[in-house]
Amino acid sequence: KNHEDLSSHFKSISTGADMDPKGHGTHCAGIASAVTGNNLGIASLNSSEGLFNVSSIRVLNAAGYGTKETIVDGIIEAVDKGATVISLSLGGPGNPIHQRIYKKAVAYAASKGCIVVVAAGNSNRNAKEFSPANVSGVIAVSAVDENLSKASFSNKVSDIKMAVSAPGVNILSTLPHNQYGFLSGTSMSTPYVASLIAIMKSINPDLSTKEIYLILEKTGEDTQNTLQTGKFIQPKRALENILKIK
Predict the structure, then answer these.
(1) Could you give the 3-state DSSP secondary structure of residue 60?
(2) Would 230 disulfide with which of 15, 110, 163, 184, CB 3.0-4.6 Å?
């Protein structure tokens, strides 16, 4: 929470998650909400005034492991503490039991007007095999490279109902102790989409997950592998669409 390029956009809602022992969370937070226009580090879609704050809730340990219970508890805690968008740069092999448990948490979030955005996964497989990317009601995010090709590691989202793509290869962002570095993964793609959705919701708070997905899909660009990646988000077009229909 004290990073030079994040602190003024960071709102603590879980003091146990204010420090990042690994760097993954800080990197994702910077992509979503690094301070723009401060002549430090990187820029995000969030304006210098701060259209929204970013917060953190820890659901995995420092080694990156956890359970579906800790993740579901984190979703519920975020919703109860007022989150508009939940960005989940995590996942693992999923089965119908996992899906049922996650689906209830996602439905609870939706009932409170909260959108859940989830990484597609980094196994170069079908995302329908991974939870919570395969859970009904989430927007799943695949990763593309600088050529708009599916990143070699990114799971395919052909069988996911609501999926889009965003940059996910060699992404520069914030790291603990006022550092910066490059990481790759659908983990990096996810906060790009979550950030855009947060701005969309700031303009029109009544937008549902399905309505937001349809706008992202309609205004998105084809990739080299659109069927496998979903449309590549186009923030300017999406926001123009919101302003036009509001």
Answers:
(1) coil
(2) 163
Task: Count Cβ atoms below 10 Å from residue 245 Cβ, excluding itself.
Answer: 11
Strands (E), the chain: 85-88, 92-93, 115-119, 130-131, 139-144, 163-167, 171-175, 179-183, 231-232
CA neighbours within 13 Å on the CB side: how many for 121? 21
The set of residues, in sequence order, having a beta carbon less than 8 Å from that of 211 and lying 6+ positions away, is: none
Instruction: Residue 206: name the closest of 139, 140, 114 by CA.
Output: 114
What tokens were used for 207? Answer: 């937008």
Contact between residue 124 and residue 154 where contact means Cβ atoms under 8 Å apart: yes
Structure tokens at 199: 């701005």
Tokens 């820890």: give the residue.
58
Distance CA 144, CA 36 (A): 23
pLDDT one-digit tens code per residue, 56-71: 999 999 888 899 999 9
Instruction: Give the C-alpha distances (Å, rounded to integers) separating 103 from 3, 41, 44, 76, 129.
Output: 34, 37, 30, 12, 15
Q: What is the DSSP string of 87-104?
A: EE---EE--HHHHHHHHH
Work out the end-to-end distance of the chain between its first and last CA atoms, rounded to an integer number of angstroms: 34
- Alpha helices, DSSP H, located in 85-234: 96-111, 186-203, 209-219, 226-229
What is the three-class DSSP state of 156?
A: strand
Are 244 and 192 within 8 A, CB to CB? no
CB atoms within 10 A of CB 122: 19
Tell me the pLDDT tens digit for each residue of 105-141.
Answer: 999 999 999 999 999 999 999 999 999 999 999 999 9
Report which secondary-structure segment, H or E, holds 31: helix 24-33
